[in-house]
Amino acid sequence: MVKRITHSTPMSISRALRLCIGEQVALELQASRRRLILTMLGFKEGAGVIVTAPKSLMKGQNTEGSVATLRMVSGNYLCAFKTRVDKVLTYPYPHFHLSYPDSAEFQTLRHHERIPVNLTVSVDHQREEYAARYSLPKLLYCRDLGMKGASIEASDRIAPIGESLFLTFRFRVQSMDQIVLLPATLKNIEELEPGVVLHGVEFDALEEDTELLLAAFYYQQYLIELGYLGHD
């Protein structure tokens, strides 16, 4: 569901979009259709938005006055609004001054939706005595991930349905590597073909810091999947 927020609504645009300093955003220039991955530096409600500018655009190109669309993930929303590059500045660092939007659209990102990933995951049992029984831990392959669970691929069944597991991922968020330990329950097992067994796991209750890291990685990958962000 897409909603439009305007100045006439009780909620301000700045609050609706949750323009967080340091967030990665995608600026698409309308004329050239060029998509730039930038960083939000700040904003003044009703006045303007400041984002970093790529050095490649600073010389030999007239970007000022360009109409553009800015997209970003804020909380569990994908936010988008039309804007204009009012000013291109090189001092004290390259940055754009963008016009403040009169309206914005935001779309709820569904927590249950899975996105394809290509991740190595270490799978262990939550009880040491059972880990030895099932020859865990093992390094396996995660083929999709959501806020509520994941699909793990192995050459054989790693444990019976209902077993409690630990999944250890290395997430790369904002150019930083984060090691994340996720408790999970094995919910289903499907043999796709000989030697390829898919395990569906559901995450148990997560600590707040862990859930925030998972959300940051998930929504980053979500934007990559939509084509709004590029791979590192």
UniProtKB/TrEMBL annotation:
The keyword Nucleotide-binding applies. InterPro entries: PilZ_domain, Split_barrel_FMN-bd, T3SS_YcgR_PilZN. The keyword RNA-binding does not apply. Keywords: Bacterial flagellum, c-di-GMP, Cell projection, Cilium, Flagellum, Nucleotide-binding. Residues 21-101 form the Type III secretion system flagellar brake protein YcgR PilZN domain. Residues 109-220 form the PilZ domain. One of its GO terms (molecular function) is cyclic-di-GMP binding. This is Flagellar brake protein. It comes from Neptunomonas concharum.
